[in-house]
């Protein structure tokens, strides 16, 4: 099981906008470079991309919550 980690502190989001679907759901295929979430830092949104391929398991961080650098955001089964 691989974890996708936050590269920086900020607010984590699992959707591109409030009315959109989540980037990934449990069981979805994940390719290297797939966007799995966003981190907002001072009104700037940074895409968080997977560095591993596999099957998306779950988000480790909740939508709209503050995260720290190095914190697990999601899990991917390789």
TrEMBL record:
CDD domains: biotinyl_domain. The keyword Cell wall biogenesis/degradation does not apply. Residues 1-77 form the Lipoyl-binding domain. The keyword Lipid metabolism applies. Keywords: Biotin, Fatty acid biosynthesis, Fatty acid metabolism, Lipid biosynthesis, Lipid metabolism. GO terms for biological process: fatty acid biosynthetic process. It comes from the Bacteria. InterPro entries: AcCoA_biotinCC, Biotin_BS, Biotin_lipoyl, Single_hybrid_motif. This is Biotin carboxyl carrier protein of acetyl-CoA carboxylase. It comes from Sulfitobacter mediterraneus.
């Amino acid at each position: 099981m691989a974890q996708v980690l936050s590269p920086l502190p900020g607010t984590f989001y699992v959707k591109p906008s409030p009315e959109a679907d989540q980037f990934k759901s449990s069981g979805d295929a994940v390719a290297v470079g797939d966007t799995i979430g966003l981190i907002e830092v001072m009104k700037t949104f940074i895409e968080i991309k997977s560095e591993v391929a596999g099957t998306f398991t779950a988000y480790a961080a909740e939508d709209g919550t503050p995260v720290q650098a190095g914190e697990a955001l999601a899990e991917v089964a390789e």
